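Quick one:
INPUT:
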């Protein structure tokens, strides 16, 4: 349910409920995912109709999951650890997708915001610092939500090989620890089939 104390719409509130708090990063993922879905003319995925690729594990990734319906569990939410605020959404039915990359100059750097952020992170912030930081944090979130997607992101149509649909695979025990793992993740060694963690420990 939308928080009556906040002006944002139900869709973003659902992201807040999932993520745990509102923040500018979450808002960026929300705006990007909504814009991508609108560009594709698609609805939230019930199964694997949509594939999402995120290039950061920061807050925006949670909003992408909520808006697109893509999740790790369904196998249609992919993480590439590139450290970029970039999101790609693909439609299986249409065979195309859109990548949104955050423009580096979309938000002028606020010295006050980052100084306060450092104080809060280090535990040095007093009550007034915390109040000022939260006010600025909330305002930056609202700024993202009220800007046009094209002001924040560069759009690029892409055609990316789609991952195969999720399959149910057999599991087998690791010869070393005895724990069961998916057969496709077991590693063949001179000690037999080992799970990835055991194989790494032996290197």
């Amino acid at each position: 349910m939308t928080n009556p104390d906040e002006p944002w719409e139900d869709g973003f509130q659902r992201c807040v409920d999932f993520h745990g708090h509102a923040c500018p990063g979450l808002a960026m993922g929300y705006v990007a995912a909504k814009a991508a879905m609108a560009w594709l003319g698609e609805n939230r995925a019930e199964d694997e109709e949509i594939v999402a690729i995120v290039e950061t594990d920061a807050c925006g990734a949670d909003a992408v999951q909520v808006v697109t319906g893509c999740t790790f569990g369904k196998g249609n939410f992919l993480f590439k650890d590139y450290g970029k605020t970039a999101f790609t959404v693909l439609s299986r039915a249409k065979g195309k997708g859109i990548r949104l990359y955050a423009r580096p100059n979309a938000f002028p750097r606020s010295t006050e915001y980052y100084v306060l952020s450092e104080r809060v992170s280090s535990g040095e912030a007093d009550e007034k610092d915390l109040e000022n930081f939260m006010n600025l944090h909330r305002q930056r979130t609202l700024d993202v939500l009220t800007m046009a997607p094209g002001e924040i992101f560069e759009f690029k149509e892409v055609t990316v090989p789609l991952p195969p649909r999720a399959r149910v695979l057999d599991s087998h025990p690791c010869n070393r620890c005895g724990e069961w793992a998916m057969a496709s993740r077991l590693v063949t060694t001179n000690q037999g089939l080992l799970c990835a963690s055991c194989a790494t420990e032996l290197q």
